[in-house]
Automatic annotation (TrEMBL):
GO MF annotations in UniProt: metal ion binding; molybdate ion binding; tungstate binding
Keyword list, A-Z: Metal-binding, Molybdenum, Signal
Subunit structure comment from the entry: The complex is composed of two ATP-binding proteins (ModC), two transmembrane proteins (ModB) and a solute-binding protein (ModA).
Name the UniProt record assigns to this protein: Molybdenum ABC transporter, periplasmic molybdate-binding protein
Residues in the signal sequence: 1-21
Organism taxonomic ancestry: Bacteria, Pseudomonadati, Spirochaetota, Spirochaetia, Spirochaetales
Annotated family: Belongs to the bacterial solute-binding protein ModA family.
Length: 264
């Protein structure tokens, strides 16, 4: 009798352990926090914006976001060479089309818009003025001009187009100091290493070391429109972040905070 009771007890304990193990297995599903981070390759001029959006996204979903800011062309070539990203934000349609032609984007949408401005160090004696075709721009300063390298920095290409539009580029070629990205072009002016610089309005707005002395008329260059894509190899969280850019009301407030206008 004792043996039967003992056997029954052992059986009950075994069944209980199996049920417990089964329950643990069921509850061991990965949480949002355990999901792989969303990797965002973003144009350098969107760094602060993307960082704030990432914080909102992580707060809402528990999913981390890793930002890789650089010039749009540099990022496009990294993707071409096999770098992995879930979302790509480009400040140039040219470089977004480049990645589309590689066959690595799943969906592409217009994102935000920006303006091109002329900046000077905060302590510069230069006063704000209007840039027009009658302005003798090369003659109003004697030093160098900081701007992104037109070969791979969209802000630099927009600047080159604007200078060519007014016929100033050839005169200024030897005085241009090309930078690796628009943030670097801004920093050079902040440090007082060049007399003037051409950057995006959003970057100039955030700096306390430079002032905007003029804005380039929009007809002087192609529209400054950013594009965003989520990639074919992106996971579900990457698509979730992509949708978050357009559907979250707080994100819309961040666009205004940083001086971007929303693409229609």
């Amino acid at each position: 009798m004792k043996k039967k009771a003992l056997s029954l007890l052992v059986l009950l304990v075994g069944v209980t352990m199996l049920l417990s193990a089964g329950g643990q297995k069921e509850s061991a599903k990965p949480s949002a926090a355990e999901t792989s981070p969303v990797v965002v390759f973003n144009a350098a001029s969107t760094t602060d914006l993307v960082n704030d959006i990432a914080d909102l996204f992580t707060e809402a979903t528990g999913i981390a976001v890793e930002s890789n800011p650089a010039s749009s062309g540099t990022l496009a070539h990294q993707l071409e060479q096999g770098a992995e990203a879930d979302v790509y934000i480009s400040a140039s349609k040219k470089w977004m089309d480049f990645t589309k032609d590689l066959g690595i984007t799943e969906e592409v949408s217009p994102f935000v818009k920006n303006r091109l401005v002329l900046i000077a160090p905060l302590d510069s004696p230069m006063e704000p003025f209007e840039l027009t075709g009658n302005t003798d721009f090369p003659a109003i300063f004697e030093g160098r001009l900081s701007m992104g390298d037109p070969a791979h920095v969209p802000a630099g290409k927009y600047a080159e187009d604007a200078l060519k539009y007014y016929g100033w580029y050839d005169t200024l070629t030897d005085r241009i100091q090309p930078a690796a990205d628009v943030r670097a072009a801004l920093m050079v002016v902040e440090l007082g290493e060049t007399e003037l610089g051409i950057v995006y309005e959003t970057d100039a707005m955030k700096s306390q070391k430079v002032k905007i002395v003029s804005r380039f008329p929009e007809e002087s260059h192609t529209p400054i429109e950013y594009f965003v894509a989520y990639m074919k190899e992106s996971n579900a969280a990457g698509k979730q972040f992509y949708d978050f850019l357009f559907e979250n009301e707080k994100v819309g407030e961040l666009y205004k905070k940083y001086g971007f206008s929303v693409s229609k």
